[in-house]
Amino acid sequence: MPGPALTVWYNTRCPVCDAGISRQKRRLIEAVKAGRIEFRDIN
After folding, report:
1. Could you say which DSSP state residue 27 is in?
2. Which of 10, 11, 26, 31 could be joined to 21 by an S-S link, Cβ 3.0–4.6 Å?
């Protein structure tokens, strides 16, 4: 099975970045569940 089409790297230690990624995850939940997008923490 191929990996996700898009990997988003982010920093959970940055409160602004973490809040923005949390919002994007909620908006893109179907793509995340389908494995098309992966969110990865750099920490």
Report:
1. H
2. 10
Query: Please, how many CA atoms are within 13 Å of residue 21, restricted to the half-sphere of its CB?
Result: 19
Q: Which residues of 11-32 are buried (b: 16+ CB within 10 A; e: fewer)?
A: eeeeeeeeeebeeeeeebeeeb
Helix then strand then coil, in percent of the chain rounded to 5, is: 40, 25, 35
Q: How far apart are CA 21 and CA 28, in angstroms?
A: 10
Q: For residue range 8-27, list pLDDT tens digits in order.
A: 999 999 999 999 999 999 99
Q: Which amino acid type is present at position 43?
A: N
Are the beta carbons of 7 and 41 closer than 8 angstroms?
no
